[in-house]
Each structure stands twice: as C-alpha cells, then as structure tokens.
Amino acid sequence: MFAYYLQLGLRSLRRNPMLTALMVMAIGFGVAASMTTYSVFRATSRNPIPQKSDVLYMAQVDNWGPENTEKGEPPNALSYIDAMALMRAKKASRQTAIYPIGPSVIPEDAGRLPMRQGAYAVGADFFTMFDAPFIQGGPWTSEDDDKHASTIVIDRKLNEKLFNGGQSVGKQVNLDGRLFRVTGVIDEWNPQPRFFDVVNTGGFDDAPGVYIPYNRAIDLQLATNGNNNCSSDPGEGWDNYIRSECIWNAFWVELPTKAAAADYKRFLQGYASEQQRAGRFRWAPNVRLRGVMEWLDVQHVVPPESQISLAVAFGFLIICLVNTIGLLLAKFMRRAPEIGVRRALGASRRTIYAQFLIEAGTVGLAGGLLGLILTGIGVLGVGLVFPKDIARLATLDPSLVLLTLVVAIAASLIAAFYPTWRAAQVQPAWQLKSN
Amino acid sequence: MEIRPILSTLRRHKVTATLVILEIALTCAIVCNAIFLIGQRLDHIDLPSGVAESELMQIIPVGIGKQADSHARATADLAALRQIPGVTGATMANQLPFGNQSWNSSIRLSPDQKLPSLNSTIYYGQDVVRIYGLDLIAGRNFQDDEYKWWDDTAGDDSLSPHVGIVTQALARKLFPNENPLGKTIWQGTNNIQIIGVVRTLTRPNLRDVESNGYSIIMPLRVTMGNFAGFVLRSRPQDRARVLDEAVATLRKQDPRRVFTEKRTYDEIRKKFFAGDRSMTVLLATVCAALLIVTALGIVGLGSFWVAQRRRQIGVRRALGARRIDIVRYFQTENFLLATIGIALGMVLAYGINLLLMVHYELPRLPFIYLPAGAALLWLLGQAAVLGPALRAASVPPVVATRG
Fold first, then answer.
1. Do A330 and B154 touch (CB under 8 A)?
2. What does the pLDDT look like over B86-131, one tens digit per residue?
C-alpha cells in the first residue's frame, strides 16, 4: 500500500508542478536557512572537552572590589599574586596558571626569518588536565616547574618547521634568543572554543604552537600577549608589575568530584577572607568557581550574530511552514471529488490519512534534498558572514545531513496534518452529488 | 465597496484566512526587526574615524625582544621612510581607529576621585594630529620640545608630559558647557592639561555609542619595542606604490624584520566592519526571501480561493457585477486580511524587539518602522493578489448556468 500511495503522491505532485515547486522551495529554503545557521551555532556552543568538562573549573578571585567591577562579577582574570598563591596552595588534584605570550622562534639556520608563535606559559599539570595529545615525549615534570627549568613543549607543526618532523625530545629551541629543551611534542591541538583562554581569544584562534613553564616565563619577564587590565597604576618595572593588582592570568583546577569542587570553593572563600583580614581586600570575599560550559556561557562565546541569525532563520522556517500548510490545503481540497470517489468506494478515513501524509512526506523529502544542496552552499558561504576562525568549524557532516532531511520531512508532515484532516473529513455524498 | 459579504465569506473559511493572517503577521514582525537590525549595523559601519582615511597606510613589524638602540633605530627608519617619493608624512604610533589593538586608561578629574569619570583610549606617536589628518577645532598642536620617548617616561610621573589633546566628545562629557582648554585631567597619578581639541578621533575598538569617541593624544614617541606600527601618509593614488617601497626600505634598514600587517587604511576599515557588512547582507537576503515566500503563499491561496469560488463569481457576473467589481472584491478581501495580520504583526514585532533589547542591549524599535512595515505588507499583499483577482475577473458569467 505504501508503494502505491507513494506512486499516487508522485503523480499528484506532477499534476500541478507550479504548486509542488512552490512547496518544495518553501521547505527547501526554510530548512537550508535554519540548518546553515544551526551549523554555526552548534560549532560555537559545543563542548570543547566533553570527556573532562565536568571536572575542570576556572577560579576567579575579586581583587578589585565593588568600585572597579560591574554587577558583583569578579574580574575575568587573576593577578599574579593570587594566581601564585593558588598555585602554591596545591589544594586541587591538578592546577595550572595560564597566560598567553608572543615569543618569536628563531631558527638555527641564520638565513631563515624569525617566526612569531602563538604560545602559552603554563604549569606542568596543564597537559594532563586538558588531555593534550603527545606524539613524542611528554610534559615537563613538576620538579621542572619548581626549578624554573627552561623546558618547552611544541606542536607537530612547529616540530616540522624546526626539526623536519623528526625526533626532537631533548633538542633545543631558541625563543627570543634564549634556549629551551624540548620535553615533548603534541599533535596539532586546538580545542574550540578555547575554554582555557576565552578572555584573550574570544574562544577561537589558530592553534598555539609553544608551551613553556609559567615560572620560567615570569623569570624572563615575558609580558602577557593578551589583555592586561589594571585598576591602578602598577608603577615602574617588572617587580612592581607582578606585585600589582593588574590582572592577566587564568587559573584552572581539576576536581574529580562535586564534593572536591565544593571544598575548593570553600578554600577560595577562605583565601579571600584571609586577604580581607590582611587588609589587602577591603570587601567581603567574592570568588567564583565555574565549570567549562558555565564559563563559556558567562563569557558569551556564542557570538550574538550566531544567535540572532539562528532566530531569524527559525522564524523563516515557521513562515515557510505556515505557507506550506496553506498550499497543501489548496492542493488537497482541490481533489475533494477524487477523495469523495475513493471514500464512496470503501476507503476508510485512515487510508485517506495515510495517502495524503505520504504525499506530504514526498514533498518533505524533495524539500529536504533541495534543502541539503542549499545547506551545502550555505555552509560554504558561512565564511562571508562569520570570522574565519568560526566559519571553518561549520561543516556539513553526516549528522547535519541527517538532521536536515529529518527536519524537512518532519516539518512537511506537521504542515500536512491539518490539510490531511480536512481531506479525510470530505463527505463522499456531497462530492458525488455535485459532480 | 460593501464589506459584509466579504466578512461572511471569510467566516466560512476561517482556517485559510487565519493562515494568511498568521503569515502576514509573522513576516511583518520579522521584517520590521530585521530592517531595524540592518539600520543599526549600517549606522555602525558608517561611523566616522576622524582620520584622513583615503591617504593613510599602516605597517606593523614584529618586535624581536628589547633593543638597546631602539630610539636611534626608530628615528633612522622614519627618516628613510620620509625619503620615499610621494610620502607626505611618516610616524610610529601605537594605534589607529578601527585597528583593533588599543591602549586605554581610566580618566579622573582629580587624583583622589574614587570612581573614574570615564575610560579613554590614548594615542601615542610623534605628529599624530597632522599625519592622521585630524581636525583641530580649538587650542594648539604639540610643540617639538613637548615630545618625549614613551619608554623613558613609563612609570615615572615626573618625566611624563603634562599636556594632551582630547576629542570633542571627551571634552563635552568631562566639561559640559565649559571651555575645556586649560583644564586638567588625571590619568592614574599623572596630571594632563588640555591644550587642544580635535573634532573626531574614534577608538581602535568600539564599545558603546557614547564612549566610541573618547580619545586622548599624548606627545610621546613610541618604538618597535612598544608594539607600535609605522603609519604613512601619501596621496590616495600613490598608496600601493608607497606601501611596497616602504616595506622594501624597512627591510633594507634591517633585513631580519618580519611584518604582521601591511595595509591601507581602507583595508583596516573593511576588515573591522567585515562581520557587520556580512550580517547586513544576510539579514537583507532573509528579508527578501521572507517577502517572496509570503507573496507566493498569498498567490497560492488566492488561486485556490478563486478556483473554489468559480461558480459564485459566475453568478455575481451573471447578476450584473462588472469585472472591476470582482477584482475589487478580492483586493478588499486581501486588504482586510493584511490589516489584521499587520496589527497582529506590530504587537509581535514589539515583543521580539523587547527580547532583543533584554538580550543584546539593542535600542527600542523606532515608531517609524511600524507604518513603513505596514505599507510594505499592504503593497505586497495587493501585488500578490492581483494575479488571482484578474483570473477571477475573467470567469465568464456563463459558468453560473453550467453544472
């Protein structure tokens, strides 16, 4: 029966190609617009580290007070004093302070030009906490951290440039004229959104190629390559700067259980009240401990463009649906005499339902196929609207293909529901009489 | 035109009528808001920078750590750049409007004021007022002996210059209805006397409409070590050549130099507003698509109604109705539906606008959008229904007497 109805449906669609084309186009365009914008939304709102996002937390301590902060939200970064104090306390199972640096890598071959590299100063725990994929060697040790060792982890790309992709553990890399010993090489690794440095990247940037120990970077007086904000003038020189309330560090901890997280929150509270007692903070403790997804949400990683265009596109899909309801109604009611004959010959309402829903389904399928092609074009065109760092994350993968078809068919079935019901209500006697 | 027969017909086709109303309402609400968003973006894109946009270029080198002789190097670089034929100005500056990299500072009216009066961006570089082509509307420019090197003064207020030039926007905010010349403002613990006012100089990074124009220019020379870039000025038609020659000149001065940016000011502006421009195109495309889909929907349902009412039309024609009466009938019917739809759409449009205001800090939808949106949809409805109405008018009276 299904095959027969499908055949009937196709024949009916061929009978008035204009109306059919209108419906297919309405569904196709509506679905394509929503799926294209959804692909961007999905890329920007996704979980960058799903396997660990529930055990990683970003700590914030308010060292500026209500005068310099807005709506009670602590600054989005830590001062060196606080980052160092939390680092030394070692109250979490793993922890790392992080800040971006912008060193130039100077190749051994004097004929080659220095390369500017995206880089981070981090603690030894960084790599284990965030599951950085090593292809050679491994992270430096926490003893290296304590000794302020000149060690370095580079990524596959830089390893190819400097060492032609060969074994490089133990070899030296020259950053701004200083030598660092390679302890490991990671694969190209670029979690998106870059949760551990949302403040400076907005969440999306090229993969960083270099990581060096935080303590060593501080010794070398490497200033942050990201945002630095000061509530008051830090005074001259590096020593004054790192003793100031200027904020430029991120601090992440790994806490395996909810109980551990609650404990750590209490520890932060305690730390802040200690600072209050010592006279450094003249306000009540104001700390935050946020999980990965909460942090991304607070930092508005999903661009407003993405949300607005998604909303507009879904509005468009709804209008296309309303339109399709009208057109299907017109199409089905025009065939009232045919329905009357079928009913008079013994077809039940149920079979009428089946017949017309299948017909609507074929419209949905055709609309879905058109929508798929248009989504493909749309995804290619995402780069015209969104920054390239975000645009390249929007792809037409199998799950999006499936979703496009499902949405198209579901939409057309929803649209067909009322017209089909009307068709099934046709009184056979009436139709037979008037003809 | 008698409306009552139309109303009684519509009452018998409630669902179809509701569909048309709903479609018009939704389209009206979305199009009003989308056009409003487009207007907002266009205002944003057209924001004036205050600089001579058609004549400026920027080259940003990568700094390789600290250099001992950075002052001498900067001076030599600039001297070499000024030798290039066609260059009418060359300097090193920390930032350009819409250049994305920005230096900002809190400004107070007295050193012990608790909360800062405002946050301003600070422009550094020799001769910025002349080379950027700023419009000095009051006071004077800096004199040569007022300039100092930024790295000589960092952190030591006694060495810092105590004069500055501000924008009109900043002066008006700090000293409304007063002459800002000679007034003192505080950047941290450093006092700055205002000696000049320029008409416009926009920030490198935009925040909100009010504070986009808050800028201060300080007489400080900057070098490569301070993340500064070269800014060049020439006649518009010379820019491409000057830019190439400037890069060649700078490489000759130091062959190991790498450049992260080499661009004309037009490119800076284009890049800065690329997202806004594309968003405008996207919204405009969606609006056009919406209007087309709605029009097609009205055509589709209109044709359906005409087909359904063939006999009724035939009877009316046989009883003496003229073709124009039939056309008027369908036009009035559409006008009624459109009016209800528009009324509903207005309410919806305001609802959506309220949501946008809460979530995206957008201003309220100006009233003018409502009559404009209404007119647009009335026209669209009338245009869409014309085809089916004319087809209805061509139904011959003889239909009434058949089958």
1. no
2. 999 999 998 999 987 778 888 889 888 877 788 889 999 999 999 9
**Cα(B216)–Cα(B107) distance, integer angstroms:** 10
Strands ordered across the beta sheet of B87-93: B87-93, B229-234, B56-61, B259-264
The domains of chain A are located at 2-45+303-434, 56-298
Provide ipTM, 2 decimals: 0.75
Neighbours of A198 (CB within 10 A): 22
What pTM was computed for the model? 0.76
Residues B97 and B227 both lie in one domain: yes
Q: Are residues B300 and B383 in the same domain?
A: yes
In terms of domains, do B62 and B147 share one? Answer: yes
Buried-state track A216-231, b at ≥16 Cβ within 10 A, e below 16 = bbbebebebbbebbbb
B216 closest CA partner among B162, B259, B288:
B162
Helix axis angle for A17-44 and A398-424, nearest 10°, is: 140
Domain boundary among B203, B232, B265: B265
Residues of B in contact with A329 (CB under 8 A): 15-16, 19, 301, 304
Q: Which residue of B has its CA nearest to A220?
A: B65
Q: Is residue B61 part of a domain?
A: yes
Q: Rounded CA gap, A368 and A290, in Å?
A: 41
Q: Hey, of B208, B224, B272, B278, which one would you mutate to test binding to chain A, going by the most A CBs within 10 A of its CB?
A: B278
Residues 285-324 on A with a CB inside 8 Å of B are 304-305, 307-309, 312-313, 315-316, 318-320, 322-323
Residue B225 sits in the same domain as residue B316: no
Q: Are strands B136-139 and B215-218 parallel, antiparallel or unpaired?
A: unpaired
For residue B261, name the pLDDT band (cuts at 50, 70, 90). Answer: confident
| pLDDT tens, position by position, B356-381 | 888 777 788 888 888 888 999 999 99
Judged by CB atoms closer than 8 Å, whether chains meet at B300 and A22 is answered as yes
Residue B151 lies in a domain: yes
The answer to whether residues B168 and B34 belong to one domain is no
Closest among A6, A80, A387 to A203, alpha carbons compared = A387
Rounded alpha-carbon distances, angstroms, from residue B166 to B47, B121, B139, B177, B200: 19, 10, 10, 16, 9
The beta strand positions in B240-316, using DSSP E, are 259-264
- Distance from the B137 Cα atom to the nearest Cα atom in chain A, whole angstroms: 32
Looking at the fold, whether B38 and B146 belong to one and the same domain comes out as no
Over residues A267-313, the pLDDT tens digits come to 999 999 999 999 899 899 999 999 999 999 888 888 777 788 888 88
The answer on B58 and B42 residing in a single domain is no
Q: Which uninterrupted H or E stretch holds B131?
A: helix B128-132
Parent domain of B178: 53-265
CA distance A371 to chain B (A): 14
Measured at the alpha carbon of residue B295, what is the angle toward residues B389 and A337, in degrees to the nearest 5?
A: 60
- Alpha-carbon gap, residue B5 to B10, rounded angstroms: 9
Distance, CA of B9 to CA of A382 (rounded, Å)? 47
Residue B270 domain-assigned (yes or no)? no
Alpha-carbon distance A237 to nearest alpha carbon in chain B (angstroms): 8
Give a yes or no: residue B221 inside a domain.
yes
Size of interface A-B (CB pairs under 8 A): 128
Contact A117/B at CB under 8 A: no
A65 dihedral zone (left: phi>0; alpha: psi -120 to 50; beta): left
The shortest C-alpha distance from A271 to chain B (Å) reads 26
**pLDDT category of residue A118 using cuts at 50, 70 and 90:** confident
Q: Which of B279, B286, B356 sits opposite A316 (nearest CB)?
A: B286
Whether B87 contacts B235, CB under 8 Å: no
**B129 touching A, CB under 8 A?**
no
Could you tell me if B103 and B223 lie in one domain? yes
Number of independent structural domains in chain B: 2
